[in-house]
Amino acid sequence: MDTSIFDKYETVIGLEIHVQLNTKSKAFCSDATQFGSAPNTQVSVVSLAHPGTLPRMNKQQIINAVRLGLALDCKINPTNSFDRKNYFYADLPKGYQITQDNQPICLGGEVPIKIGEEVKTIRLHHIHMEEDAGKSIHDKHPKHSYIDLNRAGVPLLEIVTEPDLRSADEVDALMTKMRQLVRYLDISDGNMEEGSMRCDCNISIRLKGETHFNERCEIKNVNSMRFAKRAINYEFKRQVKLMEKGEKTLQQTLNFNPETGVTTPIRSKENAHDYRYFPDPDLPPVQLSEDFIQEIKAALPPLPDALYQQFTKQYKLSDYDANILVEEKETALFFLDLIKHTKNYKAAANLMINKIRPYCQEHKISSSDFPIAGKKLSDFIQLIDDGKVSSAIAYQRIFPALIEQPNNTPLAIAQELNLLQESDEGFLEKLVEEAIAKNPDKVKAYQKGKKGLIGFFMGEIMRSSKGKADPKATNALLRKMLEQ
Core-most of 128, 179, 400, 451, by most CB within 10 Å? Predict the structure, then answer.
């Protein structure tokens, strides 16, 4: 098929993002939720749906849902009810899932995402609470499927977007933003590889310029952004080919096979009536007071978008620096603590990005566990600003020594290592005279107009002084003596 055919169409994508919450117990019983335990060891009579057992609400799930809703500018629903979503799969012993249909906890909301230089706002339809299903394992036996019910009943939030996304790159940006946000809020680790965050992609196509929606297909349980991009791009082309042949896209639930790069039908796409929703008679409605909501709001941490604006507007940092600093909450908070002690925001950002962050990543520790406190790091920056040591010497010699001796001071280390810069004119004159005397040809070339040789002479002097010559004073004296 002529590839230009694809240019006539656009993809219309809506997401259902499932965020597994990091509560210590399941949504409706006290089973543990730790990832990686032996199969079927985190179950009880409730999660196994034994007759006569009753669910009870997990308060922390409600708190986490409100935290996320407030962060996304949702309207918090004060009255929350739970419903039964009926379907028969082996990975939910009850034969139904406890979820929210009529009265979800969060309504509306939006997520700004950045695509290149443009910011696009993705609208949310709602966020609801529910429980996760267990895990069906199909590749351990040629004839049988295994079931691990450790995950059955783990609390989830499902974030349902409007069909505002138009490309796999936008999906990537949104999922990356959501993972960052749930980590800032400390409600989930957002780890897609472990299933803590995954998404269902609802995809349809239409001719560019059209406004109606065509039949969509849903790709289930995508737990990798690389796979999501491949699945969306494949499904877009598949639907275009069908439309070009005059065939209709059937509303189906699809599976994406990463090995083949192909989507295949699992079943016809269900509608709400197929699930036979009805109110759960065992769970009474939950009423959220305004005081309860405001208390949660007051305890929210600084959020990445607000921090980005603060770093770029108030502290005049570049887009690049600000984006790196807000990527993880611990890094952003460490930076905020550091600049309480210094006004050189750019130097503080450079120190965070080029030294502290790489050190933490290499040693697999959080920024909050970095061995040097903010006040001492500000003394390190001030040592450079005062011209007592060069930036290169400070980063190469003093910073590593400071990590080894966190109780010492940057100044004391510089003194011990004999690294303090000399600005004494007699000391500098001797160095400059030696450099000039050793390189008469370079001196003549400089005096004939090759002014770039100043860098050569500075390099010679810095080497002979072992970095101790004050660069600013040395440069001025060198120019004066070369031009005599």
Answer: 128
DSSP symbol at 282: T
The CA distance from 103 to 402, in Å, is 56
Reported confidence tier of residue 68, pLDDT bands at 50, 70, 90: very high
The DSSP code for 270 is P
- CA pair distance 305, 326, nearest whole angstrom: 8
Q: What is the pLDDT of residues 8-49, one digit of tens each?
A: 999 999 999 999 999 999 999 999 999 889 999 999 999 999
pLDDT digits (tens, 9 = 90+) for 351-364: 999 999 999 999 99
Indicate the pTM of the whole model. 0.86
- Closest by CA to 147, choosing from 200, 89, 84, 224, is 89
What's the confidence (pLDDT) of residue 100? 97
Structure tokens at 117: 């230089």
Q: What domains, with CATH codes, occur in the chain? A: 3-293 (no CATH), 302-370 (no CATH), 425-482 (1.10.10.410)
> Are the CB atoms for 279 and 101 separated by under 8 Å?
no
Q: Which residues contact 343 (CB under 8 A, 6 or more apart)?
A: none
Report pLDDT digits (tens) over 46-58.
Answer: 999 999 999 999 9
Assigned token pair, 32: 């543990």
Amino acid at 44: S
